[in-house]
Design goal:
There is one protein chain. The chain starts with a helix and ends in a 59-residue tail after the last helix. The strands form 3 sheets. It has a 5-stranded mixed beta sheet with strand order 1-9-6-2-5. It has a two-stranded parallel sheet with strand order 3-4. It has helices spanning 3-36, 45-55, 70-73, 87-98, 118-128, 151-159, 207-231, 236-239; strands at residues 39-43, 57-62, 80-83, 102-105, 132-137, 163-170, 173-175, 183-185, 190-199. By secondary structure, it is of the alpha/beta class. Strand 7 and strand 8 form a beta hairpin. It has one domain.
């Protein structure tokens, strides 16, 4: 290797390490300023914590558009999540850990064999660890935006876990020119956080049922997104530019969610196979059918 190339690699590695130390502190300081100067409407905590308390685990699904705010906004849930194995992923991992997350490395943006095994690792971790809440950006790290991959549903199937859909949105923010139009909120704001669920998929569901479940969750998360926009008076043309062009709401006014299965949207009446603390996991669930790869997660 030429000395110049070796030097550039050394400098790049040191820059990433420095960024991984400095940027999380700057990020937390900025998001703290946004939080203390903003008004909040909270509609998630009782649902998500209720699922974790009753069933010892939950899968929270959200769009990648929230990637800037997710670490800080959900820090008090002590979530578990996924980050790329890229250099930028190292910085994101440090930021997430600073905000109380347990981080797996892998995902669809990875150029590593890690993406072929990370789904199985996440399933095994949830099965072996008490009170895990996974937070998964279900349209991945490369998109397309607002199109759900099946990894979150696969984890829920394998672990007998409820799925909770999550949406946080700010009235005032900068939408970056990225594939997902990431929102960077401004101080002195109004934030809405909504949740819907729980949604359940049977541990013996085949891959066709898994895909139908994923399609239903995608539609429900679009509905939740539209409801958050509506509550904050967002311009529907701008806000919904990444929605399917023929999308129309199916939710009744004043409701949050539509059932697919008989146990959906009822926190206190789970299916008989739902995992409980101390229960034995359904061991065959991860091997039934062709399990999706980690690229289905993020």
């Amino acid at each position: 290797m030429r000395p110049g190339k070796r030097l550039r690699r050394w400098a790049a590695a040191r820059s990433i390490r420095l960024a991984a130390i400095v940027l999380p502190w700057l990020y937390v300081a900025y998001m703290w300023l946004v939080e203390v100067t903003s008004r909040h409407e909270e509609g998630l905590r009782d649902l998500l914590v209720g699922c974790a308390d009753r069933y010892d685990r939950a899968v929270a699904a959200l769009w990648h558009q929230e990637v800037f705010t997710v670490a800080f906004n959900y820090r008090n849930y002590h979530g578990h999540t996924l980050a790329s194995v890229s250099d930028f992923g190292e910085v994101i991992t440090a930021l997430l850990r600073r905000c109380n997350f347990v981080v797996f490395r892998g995902g669809s943006g990875s150029r590593s064999r890690r993406r072929s095994v990370v789904l199985d690792e996440m399933i095994a971790h949830m099965r072996a660890t008490p009170r895990v809440i996974y937070g998964i950006t279900v349209d991945g790290s490369q998109g397309p935006p607002f199109r759900m991959k099946s990894g979150a549903a696969a984890i829920a199937r394998a672990c007998q876990a409820p799925v909770v859909l999550v949406r946080t949105w700010y009235r005032r923010g900068i939408l970056l020119d990225t594939w997902d139009h990431t929102q960077v909120p401004l101080p002195f704001n109004h934030r809405v956080t909504l949740g819907s669920g729980p949604y359940w998929i049977a541990p013996d569901a085949d891959d066709a049922a898994l895909q139908a479940f994923t399609t239903h969750l995608e539609e429900e998360l679009l509905e939740l997104t539209a409801r958050a926009y509506e509550q904050l008076g967002a311009d529907p043309v701008t806000a919904r530019r990444d929605f399917p062009p023929d999308w129309r709401t199916r939710w009744a006014p004043g409701t949050l969610g539509r059932k697919l299965g008989p146990y959906d949207l009822d926190l206190d009446h789970p299916p008989p196979w739902a995992h409980r603390r101390g229960a034995v996991d359904y061991a065959d669930a991860a091997t039934r059918g062709a399990a999706p790869t980690a690229s289905a997660i993020s």
